[in-house]
Amino acid sequence: MRPTRAVLTVAATALAPALLLAGPAFATGTVSSPAPVAVSPAVVVLETPVDEMSDDDVRVALSRILADPDSGRRVIREVNALLDSGTPEEMRAWLGTGYRLAQAEDDTVALSRILADPDSGRRVVKEINALLDDGTPEEIRTWLETGYRLAQAEDDRVAIVSILNRPGISDALRAAVQEAIDGTPEEMRYFLEYGQYEVDA
């Protein structure tokens, strides 16, 4: 891990350790049962171009961003500062360019939180490292919205297959593993967290 990435990881872990994502373990023993991570699904979309907004529209847009439960820490901090003492011109400038930059920093912290978890799978780690090296803010946002789910699904599939290596695996669990491998990302995640333990219960 490069020093820059290590610093990001330490900072992200210190900021919000409760948001760490636990992915599947790849040992041949018990597969971990991680809790899903809340990743911001999307930024607030502005319905009107910033230069066509009235001063009131600008304040409403900022308030919508502030009220969005998925807004990150830097976004919230900067919106609060603007609503407290920003001029209409400063608010417009932030909506035009500052929002993207603040969201990019929050998204990078989200990547670092996932990377900091030792249970994150190989594809997730590989793709995060590539994004931290060369990803644009737009590529990082797209990955958090859609690519993360797909990368996690591939890692989950590998973890499910590894269950077949357990000594003394029952026929019922073996059959359940075969079925889970063909499931949706959500079904595979459920199987790792709960389903595998229900088969022989």
Automatic annotation (TrEMBL):
Domain of life: Bacteria
Signal sequence, renumbered to the chain: 1-27
Annotated Pfam families: ALF
Keyword Signal: yes
Keywords, comma-separated and alphabetical: Signal
InterPro entries tied to this protein: DUF312_ALF
Protein name (record): ALF repeat-containing protein
Organism placement in taxonomy: Bacteria, Bacillati, Actinomycetota, Actinomycetes, Kitasatosporales
